[in-house]
Amino acid sequence: MNQTIEISSKSVSHRWTQHDTHWALSLFGTAVGAGILFLPINLGMGGFWPLIIMAVLAFPMTYMAHRGLARFVLSSRHKDADFTDVVAEHFGANVGRMISMLYFLSIFPILLIYGVGLTNTVDSFLVNQLGWVSPNRVLLSGVLVAGMIAIMLGGNA
User: In this structure, how many other beta carbons lie within 10 angstroms of the beta carbon of residue 60?
Assistant: First the structure.
């Protein structure tokens, strides 16, 4: 997976790094996250063929959007640049802050929905599959969010 990139008549060899792996896994996670939590339940109630049709229609939209985002982030001259770094590099500091804020505001409500959906799913699993009494939802959601943060921080060590 070696690439040679021409930058002002210099050849720079770019090898696949852990940073690239993190970006690929993050994009994959966002692409399938909604599908894992909500799509099969809602579409499954409509039957098999609507599920297949929606999967066929959703694939190109999801693939193209995430490919574009990945290409944009990888367009930076800096090896370890993230989204905010690339936006500032391409559009300047002030516009970069504005775009990063808009990006955050578009992602944040989705994270809240995932948090509620994950809490509901785990609660349903504990009650219906394991036969437990429903735990305190505040405590359950706190444990789930803390667990996800611990996994993310453990991966960056």
Answer: 9
